[in-house]
């Protein structure tokens, strides 16, 4: 099965470099997606541009792919399910929840000169980054790509209720499945509360398991594709 890999904020497609060979060895075809504005130098990219890149990968797949979104890109993966509900086998969300219709995509940090730069590690101290050694932190920070303002502040539009029938696997890295269930029950993710087939998978890692636990993450995604 094709497994489309969408990295979160500040990451380009190389974020999946350690996951790709593991998924290939497990019999799948991993497809890391280069997002406009995050790896191609297009600082003027919009959220619609990024979604178009994801949908192009969905449309190019010979079968129904599993669409994987990390962190904020959980929303991009969900937007793909909304736009192509009959052409997506499932969605896996790693450490993130989809933004609700009408909300900003990822307006989390300060925008400077039209982009949202990586804010450094201070906001992610604790469970998010505890499993990253100094060298890995330095590598991620050195390769971080400022996210265009029109992506971060782009408005999410969900239009097709059939997306709720697409199976979702919520991979829980820096938080537990029990915590995720509590947050969803409290209303923090209205769509996930209505998904017909929602499964939780615990993964002992921080927020960036593609860097710290690539083999374990690949196995989780392969199991999600197989199911």
From TrEMBL:
Give the record's keywords alphabetically: Hydrolase
Q: Which residues cross the membrane?
A: none
Domain AB hydrolase-1 stretches: 3-219
Q: What Pfam families does this protein map onto? A: Abhydrolase_6
Which GO molecular-function terms appear in the entry? hydrolase activity
Keyword Ribonucleoprotein included in the entry's annotation: no
Question: Taxonomically, which superkingdom?
Answer: Bacteria
Name of the protein described by the UniProt record: Alpha/beta hydrolase
């Amino acid at each position: 099965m094709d497994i489309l890999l969408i990295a979160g904020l500040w990451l380009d497609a190389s974020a999946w470099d350690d996951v790709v060979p593991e998924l290939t060895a497990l019999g799948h075809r991993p497809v890391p997606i280069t997002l406009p504005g995050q790896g191609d130098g297009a600082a003027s990219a919009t959220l619609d541009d990024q979604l178009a890149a994801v949908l192009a990968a969905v449309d190019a797949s010979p079968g129904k792919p599993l669409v994987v979104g990390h962190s904020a890109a959980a929303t991009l993966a969900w937007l793909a399910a909304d736009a192509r509900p009959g052409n997506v086998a499932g969605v896996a969300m790693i450490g993130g929840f989809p933004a609700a219709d009408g909300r900003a995509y990822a307006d989390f940090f300060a925008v400077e000169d039209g982009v949202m730069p990586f804010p450094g590690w201070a906001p992610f101290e604790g469970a998010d980054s505890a499993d990253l050694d100094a060298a890995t932190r330095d590598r991620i920070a050195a390769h971080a790509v400022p996210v265009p303002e029109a992506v971060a502040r782009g408005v999410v539009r969900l239009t097709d209720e059939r997306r709720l029938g697409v199976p979702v696997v919520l991979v829980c890295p820096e938080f537990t499945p029990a915590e995720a269930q509590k947050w969803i029950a409290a209303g923090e993710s209205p769509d996930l509360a209505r998904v017909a087939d929602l499964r939780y998978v615990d993964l002992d890692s921080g927020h960036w398991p593609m860097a710290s636990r690539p083999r374990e993450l690949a196995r989780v995604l392969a199991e999600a594709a197989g199911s």
